[in-house]
Amino acid sequence: MSLRYLARRLASAAITILLIVILNFVLFRMMPGSPERILLGRIPNVSGEVVAATRERWGLDKPLFPDQFVAYLAATAQGDLGFSYGARGRPVTDVLLQKLGPTLLLFGLGELIAIVLGLALGAYSGWRRGGVLDHLGNGLSLILYSTPYFLLGMALLLIFATGLGWFPTFGIDTVGRVYSGPLDQIADIGFHLALPLATVALGLVGQYSILMRSSIVETLSEDYITTARAKGLTEGRVLRTHAIPNALLPAVTLIAINLGYVVAGAITVEVVFNWPGLGTLTVDALSSRDFPVLQGVFLLLSVGVVLANLVADLTYGILDPRVRT
Amino acid sequence: MTAPALPVSDTSLRPVGRRRGAFLREILRRPNGAFGIGILAVFTILAILPDVLVGPLQTAVTATGPRLAPPSTEFPFGTDQLGRSILNLTVHATRISMVIGLLATFITVAIGAVLGIVSGYVGGRFDAVLMRVADFFLVLPTFVLAIILTAIIRDALGTGSRELFGIRLSLLVIVVVIGITSWSSAARIIRAQTLSLKERAFVDRARVIGASSGHIMRRHILPNVVNLIVANAVLTFAGAILTETTLSFVGLGDPFQPSWGQLLEAARSTGAPGLGAWWYFVPAGTAVVLVVFAFTLLGNALDDILNPKLQGRR
Amino acid sequence: MRSPLTRRVRPMLAAMLLLAPTLIMAGGAKAQDQLVLRVGTDQKLETLNPWQSITYADYEMFSIQYELLVSFDINLEPAPGFADSWSTSADSKTHTFHIREGMKWSDGEPATCEDARYTYQFVLDVLASDDGYVGSGYLEPYLSSAGLESVECDDAGNLIATTSYPTTLLTQAYVPILPEHIWSQYSQQEISDATAEGYFANEPPVVGSGPYHAVEWVPGESIRMERNPNYWGTPGVPDQIVFQTFESVDTMVQALRSGELDYVRGTGADQFDALATEPNIRVAEGYANGYTYLSFNTRATEDGYGGSTSALEDQAFRDALGYAIDRQTLVDRVLNGHGVPGTTHVPPYHVDWHVEPDNPRTFDLAEANRRLDAAGYARGDDGRRVDKDGKPIVLRLTWPDSEDHSADAQFIQGWFEQIGIGVDAAVTEEGALLELLPGPEYDDGYNADWDFYMWGWGGDPDPNSLLGLFTTDQIPQAVNDCFYSDPRYDELNTLQQQATDEATRKEYVDEMQQLFYDAACYHVLYYDSELHAMRTDKFTGWTNQPPDTGVPLFGFGYPGYMLLQDASAVPTEGPPTAAPTAGESPGTSPTPSAAPAGAGGGVDSTVLLVGALVVIAVVGGGFLLMRRRRPAEEEE
User: In angstroms, rounded to a whole number, what is the distance separating the alpha carbons of residues B314 and A30?
Assistant: First the structure.
């Protein structure tokens, strides 16, 4: 990979992040309801002076541009995203960090399982195109793809938690439980993780399988596959050594590009299972008008997706010589 | 949004579209396409004639049923917590969901097509800037952006019960938001197509005989990307329905005009899953899955038709 | 300060690496050694600093951890709290509270009159300061409305409080007595402003004087409390109390059903009815100490106000509309019967204070039409009434999106349509609504651009706060949101605050209710019930506060917790007793239990987060690389 390629990718990611930061400022200054009014809510005995004081304290008395904007840029650069209204003034960064772990756990694992399963299923479907398993697998994939995540979650919750009672209904661990050791605690978390994880994985597996299937089908029609077949390689070998590796790259790239869509839509899973992550936080911040937190979530997710894309791009650059320009 | 638009291959291309009738026949020839069209036909009828089929939309005042009653002969899908017939609500929600989906798709594809064609044809700095913007929109977490935009636009437009196309303003906001957050992938695909068309001989010929850029884009490029636009629109429609459902589910819908997502939200906030009131959320849930499923099948069928490379291997 | 993350992130990382089905199966089996009371709430647990309290959940947290100067018993009567006895001078302006002797804070420091003096003096200082309020501003009014002037400790350890006028409200003051040795280290700014440098969040372990104190807090999510080893009274039966927030009420109800919770606050009406029929579950329906109302913009077309019609300013018009609201139907259909049709702004929860108005507006559309005709609002050609400026009347109805009033709105729309009044109904974001409501007195740029809207208010054990919302001086505070102003009402409010004789005070309070009802600025729609549910197979002794009209927990003070009994120790549910059972040796309870296994870690949470990312990247990337490398080898 050339330095120029690397530099260009990095620069482009940096510009995108800067744009996101600016957009973030603009969007949130347009939100309805003045911050001080939301902050003070319907508290009795609040005088005009108090409102003015609140405004000053939160820097809302200064002009939007340049004062507030410059202050915002400087603060953001230092990782200071302001204070959460909903969490009674806790720093937004703290709130986000608290929720980031559970979300990473749920979606990190969920994505991994979905990618492995989805790619395997897709590869098989595409290879046996038109077969019974292809029809079944493809049909199932399409139905899973068509189901909103929260609906899937509600169904699993109903069947396995409330109905059969096999799994707990909420949360990430048993609150207040005293553990006999780390293994005990891990088991407890794993136990709580099972259903939300299954929801995320099932929700994602459909579209990954579809992606991989079409990628495999396309690859199988390439000339070098015909050549490989002509060389007398077995079908299985053609698939393993030529088709899958070449089909994998476009599929994985598409997955990385779609990350923003996927994670954002899937956050409703967290609400269904009361999972203490960024999704629950978003929905909650929405209902409590906690704009600084919404702003923080937006920034965090956007930057996360930019970075994921950057990693995908760079990986692509390393793996595929054709893009090393 | 909830689900990314599936890739539509942009490799297909033949200069001029075939006659539409033949196109439709070709869709129907495929099981995918026939099945998709069939499901959509049923829901389209529901969306056009809700009043004829199940009477006017029931409100708290006109509801006649008992509270949260299971399905019976009088109420085939049971009732909600206000005694309204779920059948009535779900059928009326079909119209709302489908119209929101249709309008959102129209906006998305219109923006995507115009920007894609112009950007691809004009090229140069304009193209570079526009595609940067498109990339930027691809990266944004659309769901969170949609939540934020909904609040902002709603504040700007005001809420109230004013209607446009029989849809309350508060719901049109969702349409606009879906449009703003999902035009970029359509634009990218159509631009790629335009780029390759631009180099074709028939475009060169038109240019040589002095046709204006506008004329070329309208007369020569557009007809050749129509199929692609249709295929993209079909998948956008599916995405729009999912987006609307999810936005309503987190409370951004309008209870005065229930969509499927709004019904699911109402079912959840009433506690229907825990109460065992499956009839409250199963109809709307099934409708969402079926319609998205149908659009996706149709999209696949179109992709098959438009992508001759795959066609031969059937 | 230990980050609340540590406990969770490290095991999570381990879980990612070790997750296996066997472990999952092992998770469910582990028995609980301690008797834990688990309480679910739909409100977030955002603060342990009492001055920041806003929600019922916030109040409950400090009520358990800190004594009030005078507490509340199960009948809501004054009960010993930080003071074990109290008396008032003949003129009711000097109040003496005897502080219990030998009391200790949970950290072992003595709890004395000085602590009470410090707390009340802090409030007085706050009230005298430039800000004039501390934190959320909810607690100081308890002392300011009692007219507190000064506090001091005498040599006998009594707190002597002087008020500027005669009052009985000091025994109702809902202000927790805080340990001076902790709180005096912080400035008013550091206590009040959560965003200030050095803000005191009162993180666990909380030093308190109540029966339990918080030892663990995951902000916004959960709080775990253990017994306070130095609590002055008889220790409670639960070894621990855990409070857990739920985003979804349905999930919360499921958790109660499955036995993961013992008590839930705030179920939906249908869930409540379903729970009532379940085995081992008891439900409690309490009168709400509050109400849901319809408020009118009574200055609609005055200069600087944005109402749509002058009719809203006319008492006769608003009065007539009151006859077109079928409150019983709203209760039956919207609340599923779990509420009481509304009349005055002091809810029947206050059994001693609530009165029914002399001339209740009962649902009668013909009467409403007759009154509108009489008031001069004739119907136009299309059947719609026109106001005195000749404009057809279409009222905009709204409510905050934090509450679902769409069904109420549909009903009101339907009824008003029948009396020729158009209703244009839509929900408004809560933040935007708060912007919309105030008039120009509040601040520049506010113009009360609304017609009528629905929301709710909640109160205290004493009706004082609910009465005080509608004095004239609350208009510029944006609290009196219907711009009600009546000098007689203002005068009565002062009189009732200063009345020391209950019968006299009741006369004032009665008159205030009637005045406000007659003005028809608010139509109180209903008093919606508090719906709670609890399991009876783990704890018994659930007692409502007050017994006839209340619910066991989330009341005032903490008596409900102290009456709980271990269901396995008490085979039959007898009358609740305050004394501990014989088998329970005092030695077992006060010892703080061992710290949770994961709590001691000093590993930086950021490191762990980065670690989690790396694991995902490595596993994902490895997968990719592995797949990629193979063909490369073979192709050569």
Answer: 53
With a cut of 50, say whether residue C575 has pLDDT above it.
no
Contact A271 C248 (CB under 8 A): yes
* Residue B10 clears pLDDT 80, i.e. is over it: no
Question: What residue of C is the nearest CA neighbor of A279?
Answer: C247
> CATH for A101-324?
1.10.3720.10
B289/A147 CB distance under 8 A: yes
The pLDDT score that the predictor gives to residue A320 is 64
Residue with tokens 């049971």: B78
A-C contacts at Cβ under 8 angstroms:
277
- List the single residue in C14, C133, C402 with the smallest CB-CB distance to A287: C402
Question: Per-domain residue ranges for chain A?
Answer: 3-77, 101-324
Domain boundaries, chain C: 290-528
Residues 6 or more apart whose Cβ sits within 8 Å of residue A288: A85, A86, C44, C402
For residue A66, is the peptide bond before it cis, meaning its omega torsion is within 30 degrees of 0? yes
**Among A282-291, B287-296, C324-333, whose mean pLDDT is lowest?**
A282-291
Looking at every residue in chain C, the average pLDDT score rounds to 83
Q: In Å, how far is C326's CA from the nearest CA of chain B?
A: 12
Nearest residue on chain C to A250, judged by CA atoms? C624
What string of DSSP letters covers chain B?
--SPPPP-------SS---HHHHHHHHHHSHHHHHHHHHHHHHHHHHH-HHHHH-SPP-TTT--SPTTPPP-SSSTT-B-TTS-BHHHHHHHHHHHHHHHHHHHHHHHHHHHHHHHHHHHHH-HHHHHHHHHHHHHHHHS-HHHHHHHHHHHHHHHH--TT-EETTEEHHHHHHHHHHHHHHHHHHHHHHHHHHHHHHTSHHHHHHHHTT--HHHHIIIIIHHHHHHHHHHHHHHHHHHHHHHHHHHIIIIIS-TTS--HHHHHHHHHHHTHHHHT-HHHHHHHHHHHHHHHHHHHHHHHHHHHHH-HHHHTT-
A49-67, pLDDT tens digit by residue?
Answer: 666 666 666 666 677 777 7
> Per the CB < 8 Å rule, is C221 touching A115?
no
Cβ of B7 and A211 within 8 Å? yes
Using CB atoms, which residue from C271, C426, C428 is nearest to B274?
C271
Q: Which residues of chain B does A257 touch, with a Cβ-Cβ cutoff of 8 Å?
A: 138
Inter-chain touch A265–B7, beta carbons under 8 Å: no
Residue C205, preceding peptide bond in cis (omega within 30° of 0): yes
Model pLDDT, residue B153: 76
What are the chain C neighbours of B168 within 8 Å (beta carbons)? 426
Mean pLDDT, residues C92-96 taken together: 92
CATH topology of domain C290-528: Dipeptide-binding Protein; domain 3 (3.10.105)
- Verify whether the Cβ–Cβ distance A19 to B250 is below 8 Å: no
Is B256 an interface residue toward C (CB < 8 Å)?
yes
Tens digit of each residue's pLDDT (9 = 90 or more) over A102-161: 988 898 898 889 888 988 888 888 888 777 878 888 888 888 888 888 889 888 887 888
